[in-house]
Amino acid sequence: MMYSILAQYYQDLVNDPQSIAEYVDFIAPFVSGKTSGIDFGCGTGEITHAIACLGLTMDGVDLSLDMINCGITQYPDIHFIQGNMVDVALDKTYDCAFCLVDTLNYLLDEADVIRFIQHVYDHLNPKGIFILDAHHPNRLNEFKEPFIEEGWVDGVGYQWTIATDGDYLNHHFAFYTDHGLINESHVQRIYDGKWLNQVLTDVGFTTTTYYDFRSNPSLDCEKYDFIGVKS
Ligand SMILES: C[S@@+](CC[C@H](N)C(=O)[O-])C[C@H]1O[C@@H](n2cnc3c(N)ncnc32)[C@H](O)[C@@H]1O
Fold first, then answer.
1. Using alpha carbons only, what angle is made at residue 43 by residues 70 and 231, rounded to the nearest 5 degrees?
2. Cα–Cα–Cα angle for 184, 187, 193, nearest 5°?
3. For the whole prediction, is pTM greater than 0.85?
4. Residues of the chain with pLDDT under 70
């Protein structure tokens, strides 16, 4: 199960205040004057909460109950919903939608990506904004030589390995706890940016693409940031 064991270590291992601040700086101008939002794949809600601090009432959807349970007491301002972002039942529409920190890459079928983007479109108000990021294919080159990080988190030794397999990134986490070794594996699929942009456009969004929050891609950029505006 993804984001089960990892949930309790996620905030310390993955999120850092500087990267959250960079997300907020990028997002802020696009959501000015908007009042409601939904974060798909919100995890423990740290970025969702940071967006709420910009003045939006935020809902967050995540597949992992363990991730939601880590955030629910910390961020009472967020309405957490457990479900699959591809088809989670939502009974309202929003001014803004977000899917951040390469959450989209957990959708392994193209058909699910298309269904998800249509689902987002259907739950936005007119002129609503969708901010979506995804791994750039450069990531596949970056992890051709497996990346291995080792360290301590909350007093527990861990090893995090990332390796490329075709169009996929395989993540493996090992936690050396007092109760023994606990493992968790994740798979992400890397999509071509032109294809993602076409899906957004076909669904009805007017799009602008950024790269690592900049207008132009660097040779080794890590991610796409798409801004979609509902017509
Ligand atoms: C890389 S984490 C990002 C979490 C959060 N956006 C953040 O910035 O901290 C990816 C999250 O996506 C969630 N996720 C993966 N597939 C999902 C799906 N199909 N529906 C909803 N959530 C999903 C995982 O449970 C995990 O919490």
1. 145
2. 150
3. yes
4. none
Ligand 1 pocket residue status of 71, Cβ below 6 Å: no
Taken in order of first residue, the domains within the chain and their CATH numbers are 7-136+191-230 (3.40.50.150), 139-188 (2.20.25.110)
Residue whose CB lies within 8 A of the most ligand 1 atoms, among 63, 84, 105, 189, for a mutation test:
63
As a 3-state breakdown, the chain gives helix, strand, coil percent values, each rounded to 5, of 30, 35, 35
Atom of ligand 1 nearest to the CA of 3: 25
The answer, yes or no, to whether any atom of ligand 1 lies below 6 A from the CB of 42, is yes
Output b/e per residue, 185-199; b: 16+ Cβ within 10 A.
eeebbbbebeebbeb
The confidence score (pLDDT) of residue 231 equals 87
Q: Which of 2, 65, 106 to mutate to test the pocket of ligand 1 (most atoms within 8 A of CB)?
A: 106
Taking phi over 0 as left and psi of -120 to 50 as alpha, with beta for the rest, 207 belongs to beta
